[in-house]
Amino acid sequence: xxxxxxxxxxxxxxxxxxxxxxxxxxxxxxxxxxxxxxxxxxxxxxxxxxxxxxxxxxxxxxxxxxxxxxxxxxxxxxxxxxxxxxxxxxxxxxxxxxxxxxxxxxxxxxxxxxxxxxxxxxxxxxxxxxxxxxxxxxxxxxxxxxxxxxxxxxxxxxxxxxxxxxxxxxxxxxxxxxxxxxxxxxxxxxxxxxxxxxxxxxxxxxxxxxxxxxxxxxxxxxxxxxxxxxxxxxxxxxxx
Length: 240
Prior knowledge:
The chain is α/β, with parallel strands linked by helices. Helix content is 40%, strand content 16%. Strands 1-2-3-8 form a 4-stranded parallel sheet, with helices on both faces. It has a two-stranded parallel ribbon with strand order 4-7. The protein has a two-stranded parallel sheet with strand order 5-10.
C-alpha cells in the first residue's frame, strides 16, 4: 500500500527516502486462478516490476529478498524439487513468478530468492481461512487429495527472512517450507478437527475438482540446502 512496485518513480522515491541495505519484496498478485484470465497483470506485478527493484538495489547496493513459489515447477517429479531443477510452470501464476526469478539472477548479484509454498497466516484469504468459512456455510466440503506440499505459516517465513539477513548465507535461491509434507485434504482434516468444526470433509481428485489454473501434483520442495546452511530449522507443518 506504500509503494506501487510497477511504478519506477514510486520505487525510486522509496529508495531515496530510506536508502535500504535490504529490500524484502512481499508484493505479489497471488490469485492463482485469476492469473489465468489476467496474465498481463500477473506478469507485470510478479515479473516485470522486479526490473525497477533490481535497478534500485544495484544503485543503492541493497540486497533483495524475493519470494517465489513451488508453482514454477510442473509437479511431475516423484521426489522433492531441488533449487536447480528445471522450472516448467503449468499455470500463469508460476510463469509470472519465473519472469522475476530469471531477471533477478541475471541482473542482481546480492539476492535471495526464497521459494515458499502453501502459505497461510492472518492475512486473508488463504486456504485455511477459505476452508473455515466454507465449513461454517456448508454441511460438507470437497478437498483435493492428490496434490502434495508443506503448509507453511507466514510466521515461519518471517523467521526465515530474519535468518537470511543476520546469518548472511551465500546469495542465491533457497527452498523453504515446514518439515514433512501432506495433501490439501489431510491438512484440511487436521485443522478442522483442531478448530472443532463439525463438517464432512470429502476427498476428491484434481480431475474432479476443476479450477481455471492447473496445480502441480507434487509441489514438495527439498530444503536440504537451507538446512545445511545452518539456518533456522522450521517446525513440522502440524506444529507450525
